Amino acid sequence: MSKNVPITVAHGDGIGPEIMDATLKIITAAGARIDIETIEVGEKVYLAGNSAGIAPEAWDSLRRTKVFLKAPITTPQGGGYKSLNVTTRKKLGLYANVRPCVSYYPFVKVKHPVMDVVIIRENEEDLYAGIEHRQTQDVYQCLKIISRPGSEKIIRYAFEYAREYNRKKVTCFIKDNIMKMTDGLFHKVFNEVGEEYPDIIKESWIVDIGAAKLATAPEDFDVIVLENLYGDILSDVAAQMTGSVGLAGSANIGNLCAMFEAIHGSAPRRAGQNSANPSGLMLGAVMMLVHIGQPDIATKVHNAWLKTIEDGVHTYDIYKPDVSKQKVGTKEFAQAVVERMGQRPTTLKAVDYTHAEPMQFNYKFPQRKKEKKELIGVDVFFDWCGVPDELANKLNEIKIDGVKLGLISNRGLKVWPDGSPETFCVDHWRCRYDTINEGQPMTHEQIVNILHKVHEAGFDFIKIENLYTFDGEPGFSAAQGG
Ligand code: NAD
Known about the structure:
Blueprint: E1 5-10, H1 16-29, E2 34-39, H2 43-47, H3 56-65, E3 67-70, H4 84-91, E4 96-102, E5 116-122, E6 132-134, E7 140-142, H5 148-164, E8 169-174, H6 182-194, E9 201-206, H7 207-216, E10 223-226, H8 228-241, E11 249-253, E12 258-262, H9 279-291, H10 295-310, E13 313-314, E14 326-327, H11 330-339, E15 373-383, H12 388-397, E16 403-410, E17 413-416, E18 428-435, H13 444-456, E19 460-470, E20 473-474
Parallel strand pairs: 1-2, 1-3, 3-12, 5-10, 8-9, 8-10, 13-14
Antiparallel strand pairs: 4-5, 4-11, 6-7, 11-12, 15-18, 15-19, 16-17, 16-18, 19-20
């Protein structure tokens, strides 16, 4: 008998403690060989005065065990402390979020009987970098950060996962008709990395139509790889399509650590009622058992759970009088799974993880040629009220050596020169400065000089973005209509 594996457990907020108790009861009954270190995270820790929502000792436990089974936690909306989920994923380098969404038809009522989709969501960047600023009275911004290593890691992970788990196709959803640089990079990396996997079918869709296809023909999808925000949204949609968001588990995988959870949140309105479905967290725990080298226990738990679903023992979220037999609470559901331990489903496909490899893949990034980076201009953003021509006239009165004002845009649309009188403008202006000989290098001193001069003239510059070329290719977008 192999020795116990230490894991860190957090019971979370809202329905968290109930579904964690149910999950631990089930996996313990199956014989999981684990030693639990319990930590506190979330609302209680925050309210006790720790602004990060997690105590420093909790990180020690996570670094020691490297395996985290976490119940959902509450994150305040629109203010308050930052999401601890996002912080944990990033701090521990958990770049891949794996979310299988499976239809259990005919035992769970669904619109789409055939569905077995694995959503692989990028976990560390995108708009979830959470870098936001209020720059003027009326304008707020959130930076969308997409990196080549980040894209390459998650896309490679999706292809490796597909190969390891005998999946035939990997689909990428992007919006690179609009975000040509950020989503364009993700798409480009998908095409490049995909070439190394000739055995796997590759497909990409613009995310809006891709999402519509997923919602109406999930049987056409297998593994889907997405940036963070799209993946967050679409994995909830996919899980709900299988009958309930409460049915899907999730693995957050990094090179050193891994975290397992339900995909859903803390459902505060359901807390303390013994009604929540513990299946999502329990299926997250199944992935954890595979990860820690206990695939026999994972198989036992998952098959007992499938048998329970098949027997019509359902929590309120999937209970339908025409397909369900018994409506049960969280505790009773867990007990029903425990009673079926050792059994397998008879109609649904039984699982067998005994040959599954852990889901951790280590990559070495290839050495890349250093590109030639050249500064050729700057976008200076102003907080200003008025009409475009007036701003252009005022800025053109300020003489700056070797530099000229090239264009002005408002919310991305060019408004000078040749703006349109119908355009609605807000108090946030992007003014693009080029060198007199457009495309020639600009110096940092020239940028400092621009800022100095506009400041002297009484303008409030709120930020700048340098304009670079990389091996001669522009590293910035054109203005709309420009
Ligand atoms: P939610 O997923 O918590 O709940 C949405 C609805 O889904 C609930 O009202 C309930 O009807 C249903 N539901 C969710 N889980 C269920 C379950 N196990 N069984 C039965 N029904 C279930 O989403 P929300 O209301 O948007 O978020 C609540 C809180 O959870 C927020 O603070 C949010 O930030 C947080 N959250 C945490 C995580 C996480 O810890 N990983 C993930 C998402 C949201």
